[in-house]
Amino acid sequence: MSERIVELEVLRFNPETDAEPRFQRYSVPCMNEWVVLDALNHVKEAIDPTLSYRWSCHMAVCGSCGMMINGEPKLACKAFLRAYDGVIRVEPLANFPIQRDLVTVIDDFITKLKRVKPYLVPKSDQPVEAGEFRQTPAELKRYKQYTLCINCMLCYAACPEYALVPKFIGPAAISLAHRYNEDSRDGGREERQQEIASGEGVWECSFVGACSEVCPEHVDPAGALQQVKIRSTVDWYQEHLMPWSKK
Amino acid sequence: MRPELKIALVSKVYPMRSHTCAAEGGAAGVIKSDDSMDHHFHDTVGGGDWLSDQDAVDFFIREAPKELLQLEHWGCPWSREPNGSVAVRPFGGMKKQRTWFAADKSGFHILHTLFQTSLKFPSIQRFDEYYVTDLVVDDGRCCGFTAIEMRSGQIKFFRANAVIIASGGAGRMFPFTTNGAIKTGDGMALAYRAGVPLKDMEFVQYHPTGLPNTGTLLTEACRGEGGILVNKNGRRFLQDYGMGPETPVGQPVLKTMELGPRDRVSQAFWHEQKKGNMVPTRWGDCMMLDLRHLGEKKIDERLPLVRDMATSYLGVDPVTDPVPVRPVVHYMMGGIDTDIRAATSLAGLYAAGECACVSINGANRLGSNSLTELLVFGRRAAISAIEYLDGGTAVANETAVTAGADAAQARLRELFNRSGGGETIAGLRKEMMATMEEHAGIYRSGEGLEQACSTLAGLRRRYASIELHDKTNVYNTDLLQALELGAMLDCAEAVTVSALARRESRGAHQRLDFTARDDTTYLRHSLASYRNAGPPAIGYSDVVITRSPPGVRDYSGEQK
Ligand SMILES: Cc1cc2nc3c(=O)[nH]c(=O)nc-3n(C[C@H](O)[C@H](O)[C@H](O)COP(=O)(O)OP(=O)(O)OC[C@H]3O[C@@H](n4cnc5c(N)ncnc54)[C@H](O)[C@@H]3O)c2cc1C
Ligand code: SF4
Ligand code: FES
């Protein structure tokens, strides 16, 4: 069995006892196929029970374990130790306030998510008894990718705009709005548009693309933002230059 | 819709982190023309080794398609047929294709659809990251509960006339499990300590194909799509355990061979392991899941997550190599005793989902029935709770209720302030897991179970003197883990004591010393009732049999 000692440098902060964050070193005996989360679990179990962080699924689907690992936003359950050598620095997700240790306050994201109405606003009023809305595989494909968001917020931690302008609705929430907009069963685009095509919405984005780079689910939020921009521009022209073209 | 209702949605994690997100395969519900309610009924009852309540199963299968359609109307991205109708796939133990799926992230999409849809109802107020510690009971009625707000450490009292528990399973009692860290049986323990029995707790389902190192599940759809299981000699050994004859590779036949039920497949593994026919790996003995004949295109199209998991967590690419897998604890058939209305014996308390036992799953749940169960009985619990509230609840003695909440708070404070105990959470947890693995696993014996019962009784005693290392308030996961351990120990004892009392083999409960099913004595649900000092008292209740008398579970290919 290949085992090695990994040095972790973990940000610690307890608002009750610490004036400011500090780093704590742990030497952790690790298996080769471990991820950073396994190393943290070992710390919690065998070295320091006071360390706090979020996790549950250990399979990159619950979205709990986002953190900065050597400065990059990652899921701790998908950050393989074999990809690192030397000391591994583990910090809470950037751009969110620290609640304690690696746990951040994510109220901002939760509020924004709600604002973009991430639910189906059915185009037609069809009772459930009438059966399913038909949707071809091609129609499904149009939005499928954007349904894969696990709300891990790595994209917010990577986004330079969000760092500068916290009121920016941000990549994941806009992608989810776009997901419903593109759903053939949905008729709610106009309602969502008020939020996502506003100044705090897509126009805040300077298209750096960092969000898509870090997204563990390949949602491609940057692509969604770009599409929303194009659609919004078309809307604008239709409204202002070609008012007759609106039904 | 009843906008005047005040609904608190309380969860120890943000709701979209709930472990439902991990379910890959899908949810069963009859929609195709070659299928029928009767088929689903018989698959479920037979799969459950006749321990399911047949009136509940009938209700369940009738409601199932409606709930899945409701999700469709809420936007769930179900996979589709070319003509735009919902697609279904085959699943272990189901004779017809009736499993609705959303690629290989079915549970994830169900959960996110429900969560996102919930955002449009202003009457639902969420309390994210609140850990529920105790139910408050007065005069035989549930009057609310207490919960720790994680971000402040404060204990809050929720005064509610009706409470629905939907807290999920308890797989974390075992060391190898597909269950996430949050599945610690909290809700089961809440109800149990409040006097509601835990039903059929001895039935713990193993999933045959977990990754040997992390327990991560490779969905049954692997086999549904045509994957095969072989031993170290390359033999598809399931044919030697009543699930043959061998079917052509890559052409799975429903309900036989690799699509046999989970309990049988896991048991076959155990026997092969004893015979030395398994493949030794650095993570222990494994069987091999071979998907290579499906080809890269199909694997990427139908099983992308499986490829991703095996490649990243194990370093094995199923396109080029067979993947070592082993049975891992997956699902609790047992749970909070409810009736067909999702009501418990405690007025005002309801339960639904994996934490509850209605029972539709009997001695062995069929894959893809439980996601549907959440939907069907989740709704049923809500309707029952509303009916109960509409019926007018008697005036409670508010002083007594508040005193109950205060007592819960005092117990927590005592745990917080305790010092000098010397027992550690991690230490006790390890011992619990080892005991469960050794004595309450795929095969059990009277002797082993007695040993487990006494070990667990000891652990529960020692638990009374654990000491917290972390005595601060904000997001104290040391405290959380201590409380979760307490819940798991109670559930674990209910499992082993119930298992010891059931001197027969049925479904997921297999005794080496009582190898046959015994319908004369044990065609009954076990009921474990909490006792403060000492192990639970075990009682029994009748199984409801309406139209399918107990028969033989036959998973050989011959009868069809
Ligand atoms: C890997 C995997 C794959 C699966 N695949 C399938 C499949 O393909 N088809 C199928 O039908 N079934 C499948 N299952 C089973 C099925 O997914 C589960 O039985 C089901 O999702 C459980 O849902 P639940 O709502 O009961 O619990 P969960 O989804 O676990 O939710 C429980 C909720 O209760 C909260 N909670 C728990 N304790 C407390 C507390 N003390 N205080 C506050 N909140 C609390 C949690 O935070 C969480 O929000 C699978 C299971 C696993 C593990
Ligand atoms: S878009 Fe990607 S990175 Fe952003 S929250 Fe969703 S899954 Fe995470
Ligand atoms: S633990 Fe669930 S995403 Fe990492």
Could you give the topology of this structure?
The complex is a heterodimer of chains A (247) and B (560).
Chain A: E1 3-12, E2 22-31, H1 36-47, E3 66-69, E4 72-75, E5 88-92, E6 98-100, E7 103-104, H2 107-115, H3 137-144, H4 154-158, H5 160-164, H6 171-181, H7 189-196, H8 210-214, H9 221-240
Helix pairs in contact in A: 2-6, 6-9
Chain B: E1 7-11, E2 27-28, H1 37-47, H2 54-73, E3 88-89, E4 99-100, H3 106-118, E5 124-128, E6 130-138, E7 141-149, E8 155-159, E9 163-165, H4 186-193, E10 198-199, E11 204-210, H5 221-224, E12 228-230, H6 262-274, E13 279-281, E14 284-290, H7 295-302, H8 304-314, E15 323-332, E16 335-337, E17 349-351, E18 356-357, H9 369-390, H10 398-417, H11 425-439, H12 446-463, H13 477-501, H14 519-522, E19 524-529, E20 537-542
Parallel strand pairs in B: 1-5, 9-17, 16-18
Antiparallel strand pairs in B: 2-4, 3-4, 6-7, 7-8, 10-16, 10-19, 11-15, 12-14, 13-14, 14-15, 19-20
Helix pairs in contact in B: 1-2, 2-9, 4-13, 7-8, 11-12, 11-13, 12-13
The complex binds flavin-adenine dinucleotide (FAD), iron/sulfur cluster and FE2/S2 (inorganic) cluster.
Flavin-adenine dinucleotide is lined by residues 10-13, 15, 18-20, 22-27, 106-107, 131-132, 166-169, 178-179, 182-183, 186-187, 217, 331, 353-355, 367-371, 374 of chain B.
